[in-house]
Design goal:
- This protein is α/β, with parallel strands linked by helices and 484 residues long.
- The chain folds into 2 domains: 137 residues, NAD(P)-binding Rossmann-like Domain (Rossmann fold, 3-Layer(aba) Sandwich), CATH 3.40.50.720; 287 residues, Dihydrodipicolinate Reductase, domain 2.
- The strands form 2 sheets. Strands 14-13-12-11-7-10-9-8-15 form a 9-stranded mixed beta sheet, sandwiched between helices.
- The longest helix has 26 residues.
- The protein is globular and about 75 Å long.
- The structure holds NADP nicotinamide-adenine-dinucleotide phosphate (NAP).
Length: 484
């Protein structure tokens, strides 16, 4: 397949928090890969900004080390690395102070796209937005990119939206949810809206239920204090899983256009029913295999924060009434696996006697590892023995199906940063979307806080607490296995 990398317009990108973990692990390596792919025009510049005193050469060296560590060896081309780091600069700025802003302004060029990536704590968003405006560093076409977490409840999300809105139009604000940058997540929209095959079946009449799983093997070690204030609900469900649910459940937008897509997602969030306490199971991992328990990692022996959550969510609209969406996510589980499984209903009447061999059709969309799709279909079991049925996957691995181009799928951050430069907000959350998601999440969290609920324990390396199995069993369904 021919590569279709289209260069973006030249830009000046300022990365606040340029020396931090996210910038060094994802943003800088991602920009290098796009540079190598020929998508970044050589006259673009990338400027790191943080409090640490450092000159351009220091930031260039730091970024070389990040590329050496986080870019695959076969992509580390010395000439390209030299050319890329030559585009990097650094300005020492304290977001809360007055130093450095004039120096930053001098670095900005006329006639190129200006983007400001706030890879810093959300408490600094207001200070940075305010000073960018005050020092006249932005222009009406400038873009501001903000990282998660976007608030910890409706009130704080509203406050963040308000602070950004003081100096930026909604069309300039890019709220990152990196899940939306994943190839397969976008493929959800292509699969649904570029094929006639699935859409007629995409409703409660034909879909029995949907499972969305984001399982991780990692613990919260090293970021226990942060995580303990969030928990799986705030860290994963309110944002990433909500976005996945929306893409599965939304109506076809009239066009693949930022507001048309986001309008449809918003309608889904607004149609979510409140979740009953019985429809939620929360868990905390126990110690095992020489590793800490959640309570040890969180350094809070009395913590009631969940490192696992499973829940049944109902959507009250014409399309989905009667089709539950089961969500689960957790740390220290058996395997790292993210997938969406759409389980279809039984055919209305079976002409075959092999009732035992029959299984539901399932469309499995794998987000990681091995991005791709499986469609589980029934066939005749090969060979003699009469008409016995067997279920087989119609397997499509994107890397295999798309050859070299498929093997070189850009990382979510790469794609999203390029979208910022292109001015395409389709894969970014709109302010009202984030607020609606919090408005649904808040009462659930308040409920368990008021009841003083403590999460159930689960074994490290398992698939979560026993009670989560019951959440499905009592509906006559079962979770798909999390495979090692
Ligand atoms: P981090 O490693 O602690 O880096 C924070 C950065 O901000 C550093 O470059 C720091 O440099 C700079 N900084 C801190 N205070 C500053 C100030 N007053 N003025 C200017 N710069 C300041 O954090 P991170 O992990 O990169 O995370 C950054 C943001 O992304 C956070 O909001 C986080 O929640 C979000 N995020 C991170 C990840 C991830 O994988 N790391 C994933 C999703 C979202 P100096 O100390 O030199 O100022």
């Amino acid at each position: 397949m021919v590569s279709r990398v289209i260069p973006v317009d030249p830009f000046d990108l300022v990365v606040f928090g340029g020396t931090g973990d996210l910038a060094q692990r994802k943003i800088i390596p991602g920009l290098y890969r796009r540079f190598l792919a020929g998508q970044i025009p050589p006259e673009s510049t990338i400027i790191g900004a943080a409090r640490s005193e450092m000159d351009d050469a220091g930031f260039q060296q730091l970024s070389r080390e990040a590329i050496a560590e986080f870019v695959a060896k076969d992509k580390q081309e010395p000439e390209a690395i030299d050319a890329f780091v030559a585009r990097l600069g650094y300005v020492a700025i304290d977001a809360k102070g007055e130093g450095g802003w004039d120096a930053l302004k001098k670095r900005m060029r006329e006639g190129v796209v200006r983007a400001f990536y706030l890879s810093v704590a959300p408490s600094l968003f207001g200070d940075i937005a305010e000073r960018l405006h005050q020092y006249k560093i932005t222009d009406p076409d400038s873009r501001i990119v903000v990282e998660k977490p976007f608030g910890r409840d409706l009130e704080s999300a509203r406050a963040l939206n308000k602070v950004l809105a003081q100096h930026f139009d909604e069309a300039q604000i890019y709220r990152i949810d990196h899940y939306l940058g994943k190839e397969t997540v976008q493929n959800l929209m292509a699969v649904r809206f570029a094929n006639i095959l699935f859409e007629p079946l995409w409703k409660s009449e034909y879909v029995d239920h949907v499972q969305i799983t984001v399982a991780e093997t990692v613990s919260v070690e090293g970021r226990g204090a942060y995580y303990d204030r969030a928990g799986a609900m705030r860290d994963m469900v309110q944002n990433h899983m909500m976005q996945l649910l929306c893409l599965i459940a939304m109506e076809p937008p009239y066009h693949f256009d930022p507001d048309a897509v986001r309008d449809e997602k918003l309608k889904v969030i607004r149609a979510l029913d409140p979740v009953e306490p019985d429809d939620i199971v929360r868990g905390q991992y126990l110690a095992g295999n020489g590793q800490n328990s959640y309570l040890q990692d969180a350094e809070n022996p009395a913590s009631k924060t969940e490192s696992y959550i499973a829940m049944k969510v109902n959507i009250s609209n014409w399309r989905w009434k009667g089709t539950p969406f089961y969500l689960r996510t957790g740390k220290r589980l058996r395997a790292r696996e993210s997938e969406i499984a759409i389980t279809f209903r039984e055919p209305p009447h079976s002409i075959f006697d092999d009732a035992e061999g029959w299984r539901e059709n399932v469309l499995v969309i794998r987000l990681q590892p091995n991005e791709g799709m499986d469609l589980m279909v029934m066939i005749k079991e090969p060979g003699p023995g009469g008409m016995r049925l067997a279920q087989v996957p119609l397997d499509m691995s994107f890397a295999e199906a798309l050859g070299e181009e498929g093997a070189d799928i850009p990382d979510a951050y790469e794609r999203l940063i390029m979208d910022v430069i292109r001015g395409n907000q389709t894969l970014f959350m709109r302010g009202d979307e984030v607020e609606a998601a919090w408005a649904w999440t808040d009462p659930i969290i308040h409920g368990w806080e008021q009841r003083g609920e403590k999460p159930k324990s689960y074994d490290a390396g398992s698939s979560g607490p026993e009670d989560a199995l019951m959440l499905m069993h009592r509906d006559g369904r079962r979770w798909r296995e999390i495979r090692e």
